[in-house]
Design a protein that fits this description.
With 424 residues, the protein is mainly α. The protein has one domain. It is built from 19 helices and no strands. It starts with a helix and ends with a helix.
């Protein structure tokens, strides 16, 4: 009887684990559904939030089965992340902003929760992680392609408002958050290009062209730049042990970069005109200079937000931040600089920022340790994570992205597929 009960519990856990991975597969489809209902119905039903919160809770429950210590550390991290905003709430009873800060705390630790969940599953059910984890990335990749396609057909949101005839510039389908889409674009296209280079090299060039076109369609600087970096760097990082050696591949890529740069220089104005960015870029360069073009006005936002924070911050606020609830005392509409290190410092302080960056470091560390070994994912995990950290400075909405967070954790967690096989 006890054995039967144990078998029943194992079957139930196995089923729940599969359901979690299947749910992870449709994250970006649910985000698109939420945006579509907002676009056509004008109401935000919080479907994405209602979808993700139980998912995170289930992952935490499974983590607790294997390591209560890790669960307690995650809970402690969450408490420290909301400590500053909660303290501010005692003198500033803005409930909606407090909920926003609680949501932010959940978002920034979700990547690590998903990552550690994958590590746990690698120890219990490595077959599920190996099969369903990879499928989840492919299905989410198809969601991005689908949304960019319907964007080309004239449906959904533009990346930027304005443009000729008020049609807007760029496309993002039904995704509400353009910068968060850029982060997902980098991660998923990085994975797909890496997969093709290693297993279906014949498809690498066509997929590279698709990546470049999709980056241009999104029309954000981060998406366009990231697509070029991925196309050229995926082959380079796959040289693994020869990464820092002078090889034939690097010579070929060098000449391709020269040719690409020459063509880009010649056609750049026409391309920018086609995607609707030429006039905007030329105006910014003429009126405000190159740094304004690179940071898109964020330097001014950073200055204003830091000044507002410094005006009344004490040691407690420096340590734990003031959240959006605190920033709402100084601003009526825009509460962030869209530069993640600055936003994190203001929202959750030095302690909270340290927690977030420590969790990212712990996710990347296994990839660095496995980098020169014959394993599938480490090279692209390092590359994609470095690009995402770069984007977190230039465009923001990466470290605190509810759209990217679970997929980011899943992507890093898939490192343990090969690790588990090697251990066996």
């Amino acid at each position: 009887m006890p054995q039967t009960l144990t078998q029943y519990k194992d079957i139930r856990l196995y089923t729940i684990t599969k359901i979690i991975f299947i749910s992870l597969s449709y994250l970006l489809w649910i985000d698109a559904l939420t945006g579509m209902l907002l676009f056509y119905g004008g109401v935000d039903l919080k479907i994405s939030l209602l979808y993700k919160l139980p998912l995170v809770a289930c992952m935490l429950a499974i983590i607790a089965l294997k390591s209560r210590t890790v669960l307690l550390l995650i809970i402690l991290a969450f408490i420290l992340l909301i400590l500053g905003p909660a303290f501010k709430f005692t003198s500033n009873h803005k409930t909606s902003f407090l909920f926003n800060d609680i949501s932010l705390a959940i978002k920034v630790i979700t990547p690590f929760i998903t990552f550690y969940f994958c590590k746990t599953i690698a120890q219990i059910y490595p077959d599920i992680l190996g099969v369903y984890g990879i499928k989840a990335l492919w299905i989410n990749f198809l969601a991005i392609l689908f949304n960019l396609l319907i964007g080309v057909l004239g449906l959904g949101y533009p990346s930027y408002e304005g443009g000729e005839d008020g049609q807007g510039i760029g496309v993002r389908g039904f995704y509400v958050a353009g910068n968060e889409l850029s982060g997902c674009f980098v991660l998923l296209f990085g994975f797909i290009l890496h997969y093709c280079w290693n297993h279906r090299r014949l498809y690498f060039l066509p997929l590279s062209l698709v990546a470049a076109v999709c980056g241009a369609l999104i029309a954000t600087k981060t998406a366009m730049l990231a697509s070029i970096i991925l196309i050229f760097m995926v082959p380079v990082v796959n040289e693994r042990k020869h990464l820092f050696h002078f090889t034939k591949l690097k010579i070929k890529l060098f000449f391709l970069i020269l040719i690409g740069a020459s063509l880009a220089t010649y056609f750049i104005l026409d391309v920018l005109q086609t995607i609707g960015l030429r006039d905007k870029i030329m105006w910014i360069l003429k009126e405000k200079g190159i740094w304004e073009l690179i940071f898109s006005g964020r330097i001014e936002f950073v200055s204003k937000i830091i000044d507002a924070f410094m005006a009344s911050a004490g040691w407690f606020e420096y340590l734990f931040g003031i959240g959006t609830i605190g920033m709402s005392d100084y601003f009526t509409t825009k509460y962030s600089a869209e530069v993640d290190p600055v936003d994190l410092f203001v929202y959750v302080g030095v302690v909270g920022s340290t927690i977030v960056y420590a969790s990212v470091f712990l996710m990347i560390l296994p990839a660095f340790l496995m980098g020169k070994q014959d394993r599938f994912l480490p090279p692209v995990v390092v590359l994609v994570n470095l690009i995402l950290l770069m984007l977190s400075v230039f465009s923001g909405h990466i470290l605190n992205s509810g759209m990217l967070g679970p997929i980011w954790g899943l992507f890093n967690g898939l490192l343990f597929i090969k690790l588990q096989v090697n251990k066996q």
